Amino acid sequence: MPKSKLAQPLPARKPRADAERNRERILEVAREVFTHDGAAASLDDIARKSGIGNATLYRHFATRDALIEAVYRSEVERLAAAEQRFAATMEPIEALRAWMLLLIEHISRKQLILPAMDTVTGGSMRLLEGSRPLIHTAFVAAVKNAIASGDLRSDTDPIDFVRALVGVFHTTALPGWEPSARRLVDILITGSRTMPKHPSRPSRNR
């Protein structure tokens, strides 16, 4: 009987960590290229600047739309994750302020990548609508933490904060919108702060 052939070892797969690093590198470079070149951004250019082959890029993101969506989604996920990080490391009122300022930065960055987002099927509004629940949940959680700590009045409605600051989305075409939005953060927080209790004054002897 012929000797059975020894099973050949399968080629070693790349560690999963390598694949994840490649994906994060692609997203990082794509964010920069889409911001700089907008709708004219080239996937070949993104692959080259990422230091990977085109095949690797398409293995992670089969289409241009998929890459643009992933870039924006990753930004939203970072924003949402920051709320939890701030909550764990800061006083609630400072965590709220820091996260609201970060939201303004997110809106500013979104404006830069918007031309590329407008090229996806369904347009940028589809991406914005899809990310809204994640942002809304993080925002409400930050406000509720500040209420629970006593920094904000108990009658504060988190939705008032959401409506006020999300309204900034509709002013980004106006000059000076970003400094105005930053001032709005302090206006909202100051206007909702718990009033300090003044010690009762001792009655004067008559």
Describe the structure.
- By secondary structure, this protein is mainly alpha-helical.
- The chain has 2 domains: 18-62, Orthogonal Bundle (Arc Repressor Mutant, subunit A); 72-192, Orthogonal Bundle (Tetracycline Repressor, domain 2), CATH 1.10.357.10.
- 68% of the residues lie in helices and 0% in strands.
- The chain contains 8 helices and no strands.
- It has helices at 16-37, 43-50, 54-60, 64-89, 92-117, 123-148, 158-166, 177-192.
- Helix 1 (16-37) crosses helix 4, helix 1 (16-37) packs across helix 5 and helix 4 (64-89) packs parallel to helix 6 (123-148).
- The longest helix is centred in the middle third of the chain and has 26 residues, at 64-89.
- The radius of gyration is 25 Å and the shape is elongated.
Primary descriptors:
206 residues, mainly alpha, Tetracycline Repressor, domain 2, 2 domains, 8 helices
Q: Mean of the pLDDT scores?
A: 86
Which stretches are poorly predicted, pLDDT < 50 over at least 5 residues? 3-7, 198-206
SS-based structural class? mainly alpha
Summarize the amount of helix as a percent range.
55-70%
Rg on CA atoms, Å: 25 Å
Number of strands: 0
CATH topology of the largest domain: Tetracycline Repressor, domain 2
Domains, number: 2
